[in-house]
Design goal:
The structure is a single chain. By secondary structure, the protein is an alpha+beta fold. The chain folds into two domains: 1-30; 48-172, 2-Layer Sandwich (Beta-Lactamase). It is built from five helices and four strands, in the order ααββααββα. It has a four-stranded antiparallel beta sheet. A hairpin with a 4-residue loop joins β1 (70-75) and β2. The termini are far apart. Mean pLDDT is 86; it is low at 4-14 and 16-22.
């Protein structure tokens, strides 16, 4: 009787361990990609003229929709190069626009990638990383295949911020 109880207990522990191993092997974070994602080389810092052109394009897009936004462009070293606060833009979004651009340049990817990772994939561990921003509206600026900076917009919804930022990024991220 004792031996039977021991065998049943051992089987349950073994089964739980096997189930745990199966669950951990199904973890998408365990996948090992062949290439490093978002591996864009850093380039020379964006010039003031190019940064101002990107800000102007983002402001024009936001103005077209009546969205008072803050727009920041940082260089490839995450330093502020150009900034514009539209009339009526909320004060809290001054720092947020810069933070979105900083996350985009430091991690070499749009901040929407972080938003999707947390919202859709439940990768909460990202929230422990320094300088992460999990809201869209930060876009890397790539010129001649190199990351020269990033643009960040804030003051509207994430989707409004992203629309304005994409307009600014198109000035730099030409694919022709």
């Amino acid at each position: 009787m004792v031996r039977a109880a021991f065998l049943v207990g051992l089987t349950m522990v073994s089964g739980a361990a096997c189930a745990q191993d199966s669950a951990s092997s199904a973890n998408p974070l365990d996948a090992v990609p062949d290439k490093l994602p978002f591996n864009i080389p850093y380039g020379e810092p964006i010039s003031l003229a190019r940064a101002q052109a990107a800000v102007a394009a983002a402001v024009t897009e936001a103005d077209k929709h009546g969205w008072p936004l803050n727009v920041a462009v940082l260089d490839s070293g995450a330093n502020l190069v150009a900034f514009s606060r539209m009339d009526g833009a909320q004060l809290a979004s001054i720092a947020i626009s810069q933070h979105k651009a900083r996350a985009a340049v430091k991690f070499r990817r749009p901040t929407k990638a972080f938003e999707d990772a947390v919202q859709k994939s439940d990768y909460k561990y990202l929230l422990t990383f320094d300088d992460i921003f999990t809201s869209r509206g930060g876009i890397p600026l790539i010129e001649d295949g190199k990351l020269v900076g990033a643009i960040g917009c804030s003051g509207g919804t994430g989707s409004q911020d992203e629309v304005a930022c994409l307009a600014g990024a198109r000035i730099i991220n030409k694919t022709d």
